[in-house]
Automatic annotation (TrEMBL):
It comes from Actinobacteria bacterium BACL2 MAG-121001-bin67. This is Dehydrogenase. Keywords: Oxidoreductase. Belongs to the Gfo/Idh/MocA family. It comes from the Bacteria. GO terms for molecular function: nucleotide binding; oxidoreductase activity. The keyword Secreted does not apply. Residues 2-118 form the Gfo/Idh/MocA-like oxidoreductase N-terminal domain. Gene3D superfamilies: Dihydrodipicolinate Reductase, domain 2 (3.30.360.10), NAD(P)-binding Rossmann-like Domain (3.40.50.720).
Length: 337
């Protein structure tokens, strides 16, 4: 299957292109604007056609287009791809609000093409490990999730557009990392309503400290924290049940390897020991290691390929995508800050 990518920065080059390859896609066309990104695209894919615009990209013979441009361009680029009758993956967030996201799904249905958003964190080691521990019942009746993306960056990076551009242009952690936290919580524990929101800018630019609480229909409460200015980040996951708690301290090393330029041929991925997060189960003062599941981002594009070829189901479907967008909109509207 032939895939094209528009946007060849961090997301397009280091996340999408190697994951596409591992899932068996051929990257045959790349749209990039700057000379350095064009050079990087040619270096990585010397046989791919390098183009200058979305119009040139959709003119290529493609089965899939991946939209990996800055957030403010997602809607326009995805809509062009959809209207050209091409299956489309959009880097998260799909749209800057619920309306943009719903409009793209409506357009995809009208044009008979696949559309989904890259919620790759559903295939992090911690995410897959949580699904395992839920299935095995080791924690008893689960009632609280704490899930985090916390780091300490007290100074704004002027080169990181997500930190510096306005909310209207798609900046801030609510759209960025909370998209992952919300989507994983909904995937693990099902439908939820927003119970609390604090969306704030501490450093004076786009929102950089965001705490949400979701109330799931099944009785679980999810506490979701995304912060760029946490001097002592908490564990990535703490999941409490009435018999025990599961704690996962760190992310797996999929992102770390991808940022270093990892690539693998179809059907291969990073060594499982490197991409399995360390997990422990605690019962008061007693604890023991819990065997985690290795992360596997190619599963996302494997699903996309099978859905295109055979009409298979997608984990990241319209319902999940719109529920994430709805909660993000509500969080911005009801924030106590």
């Amino acid at each position: 299957m032939k895939a094209g990518i528009i946007g060849y920065g961090l997301a397009g080059r280091y996340f999408h292109s190697p994951t596409l390859l591992a899932a068996g896609f051929h990257v045959t066309a790349i749209c990039a604007r700057s000379l350095d990104k064009k050079a990087a695209a040619h270096q990585d894919f010397p046989n791919a056609v390098i183009v200058n615009s979305i119009d040139e990209l959709i003119a290529e013979d493609l089965d899939l287009i991946v939209v990996a441009t800055p957030n403010e361009f997602h809607s326009d680029h995805a809509l062009a791809s959809i209207r050209a009758g091409i299956n489309t993956v959009v880097d998260k967030p799909m749209g800057r609000d619920y309306y943009e996201t719903a409009s793209l799904y409506d357009a995809a249905e009208q044009n008979g093409v696949l559309l989904t958003v890259f919620f790759n964190r559903l295939w992090d080691s911690d995410s897959l490990t949580i699904k395992k521990v839920i299935e095995q019942g080791d924690l008893g009746n689960i009632f609280r999730l704490e899930s985090r993306f916390e780091r300490f960056r007290p100074e704004i990076n002027p080169l990181a557009w997500r930190e510096s551009v306005s909310v209207e242009s798609g900046g801030g952690l609510l759209l960025d990392l909370q998209s992952h936290l919300i989507s994983t919580a909904l995937n693990w524990f099902g439908p939820a309503e927003l119970a609390f929101s604090s969306v704030r800018s501490v450093r004076g630019s786009s929102d950089d400290d965001v705490l949400l609480v979701l109330k799931h229909d099944n009785g679980v409460d999810s506490y979701l924290s995304a912060s760029a200015i946490s001097g002592k980040p908490g564990p990535k996951i703490r999941l409490n049940g009435d018999k025990a708690s599961l704690v996962i301290t760190d992310l797996d090393k999929q992102e770390e390897n991808l940022r270093k330029g990892f690539r693998a041929p179809a059907g291969q991925w990073i060594d499982s020991d490197e991409i399995t997060s360390s997990a422990k189960i605690y019962k008061g003062s007693d604890s023991h290691s819990y065997q985690g599941e290795p992360g596997f981002y190619p599963a996302f594009y494997n699903e996309v390929r099978l859905a295109i070829e055979y009409g298979g189901e997608l984990t990241v479907n319209r319902e999940l995508s719109l529920n994430v967008a709805r909660i993000i909109d509500q969080a911005r509207q009801t924030s106590i800050r």
